[in-house]
Amino acid sequence: MLDREKVLAALKQVSDPVSGGDLMASGVVRALNVEQDAVRFVMEIPPSRADAYTRARDQAEQVLKSAGATNVSIVLTAHEEKAPPDLKPQAPKAQGPERVPGVAHIIAIASGKGGVGKSTVAANLACALAQQGRKVGLLDADVYGPSQPRMLGVSGRPASPDGKTILPLRNHGVTLMSLGLMTNDDQAVVWRGPMLMGALQQMLFQVQWGALDCLIVDLPPGTGDVQMTLAQKTQVDGALIVSTPQDVALLDARKGIDMFTQLKVPLLGMIENMSTHICSSCGHEEHVFGHGGVAAEAQKLGVPLLAEVPLHIDIRLAADGGAPIVVSQPDSAQARAFRDVANALVAEGVA
Ligand SMILES: Nc1ncnc2c1ncn2[C@@H]1O[C@H](COP(=O)(O)OP(=O)(O)OP(=O)(O)O)[C@@H](O)[C@H]1O
User: Fold this and answer.
1) 100, part of any domain
2) pLDDT score at 92
3) Mean per-residue pLDDT, 287-311
4) Which residues participate in ATP binding (predicted)?
5) N or C: which end of the chain has fewer CB within 10 A?
6) What integer best gives the mean pLDDT of the chain?
7) Rounded (10°) angle between helices 225-233 and 247-262
8) Strands 214-218 and 106-110, how do they pair?
9) Helix boundaries (H) for 140-263
10) 185 and 161 in contact (C-beta within 8 Å)?
């Protein structure tokens, strides 16, 4: 049976192409996880040496398999190289956000607070747009709790035939890539800042998204590195803010809105989720988290309230079952709320 000690010993047999020492001593191996006979880790490497490290990765895979590993997953992520100081005067280079090749629009789905239903909105919105014939991608950048593979009923590891490009997965007409597909289901991932940014850049620029009308990005809650990196590295056409009507959620939502304003990402609108609870037995409506708070906030900010999505058990069951409600019950009132958002985005010309 393979254990961590055997894995470390095997990796010491592989030489590091830059330092000349072994792979473990060079410090490029991060987030090593050994579980039964499966080994996963990330190699954080300077992007200019990607070819040499691709060969080192292949060697590492071979030695691990010889040591008894049946499943080896090694992800290369780029870390920034420190350039030597250049003291010659130079004209400043314009290094603004880049467009992702083939992707016409990028829409970020954000929330200030966790658990308000941001991923549920992102999954339903992506499927609703696909149902309208739009070419849609969904990037699950919620590094702290990637849930899109489960919500879209997708599993398995994305292939990378050449070690550089990553082939995304697809279901319900949506092209999906998620950090959740690169890690174990039950593995809590601790991403360090540079790794996180490297991984996000890989997801944006190395995944073969193909031609997309719209790439929906499911962000982690809050205002952190992922939000900043996304807005700084790519041209984001707009952000949707999801919130429950509770004061605490709204308070956090306001912070998110301020951040997007500072990052110069246009606010496309707000969505009130868990707006009203509809009892699945008697149809009685109750405002569990209050009601109308998001509408009032949207009015104050002068942005549209795109939908009030009820708290309904069918929405959760559908999401947990891998077919979002717009797919599993397209004629329900709940599905209609999500379709309204998709229609508004198409009408706005951003999806
Ligand atoms: N309108 C709704 N009605 C019923 N259940 C819902 C609704 N919206 C979301 N849920 C459920 O609430 C839970 C949290 O939703 P979700 O994962 O979408 O939230 P999130 O804001 O993305 O959370 P995180 O902070 O983990 O990213 C899920 O189990 C989901 O199925």
Assistant:
1) no
2) 45
3) 85
4) 112-119
5) N
6) 86
7) 30
8) parallel
9) 148-151, 193-205, 225-233, 247-262
10) no
**Measured from the CA of 116, which atom of ligand 1 is nearest?**
21
Q: Which residue has the tokens 């620029």?
A: 205
DSSP state of 48: G
Q: How far apart are CA 257 and CA 265, in angstroms?
A: 9
**Is 92 exposed, middle or buried, given 0-12, 13-18 or 19+ CB atoms closer than 10 A?**
exposed
Which residue segment(s) compose the domain that 215 sits in? Answer: 106-348
315 C-alpha to ligand 1 centroid (Å): 9
Q: What is the dihedral of CA 34, 40, 46, 48, to 10 degrees?
A: 140
Same domain, 167 and 39: no
Angle between helix 118-131 and 333-348 (nearest 10): 70
Average pLDDT over residues 209-215: 96
Looking at 132-141, 167-176, 242-251, which range is the least confident one?
A: 242-251
pLDDT band at 143 (very low <50, low <70, confident <90, very high): confident
Which residue, 342, 261, 242, is CA-closest to 301?
A: 261
**CATH number of the domain enclosing 40:** 3.30.300.130
CATH assignment at residue 256: 3.40.50.300
Q: Specify the pairing of strand 71-78 against strand 238-243.
A: unpaired
* Contact status, residue 321 vs residue 328, Cβ threshold 8 Å: yes
Euclidean distance between CA atoms 186 and 38, whole angstroms: 14
Q: Are residues 197 and 336 in the same domain?
A: yes
The answer to whether the CB of 311 is under 6 A from ligand 1 is: yes
- Report the length, in residues, of the chain: 351
Average pLDDT over residues 135-153: 90
- Based on the fold, state whether residues 171 and 278 are members of the same structural domain: yes
Amino acid at 301: L
Spatial contact of 324 and 107, defined as CB atoms under 8 Å apart:
no
Nearest CA, atom 25, ligand 1:
114
Q: Check pocket membership of 177 for ligand 1, CB cut-off 6 A.
A: no
For a ligand 1 pocket test, name from 111, 113, 119 the mutation site with the most ligand atoms within 8 angstroms of its C-beta.
119
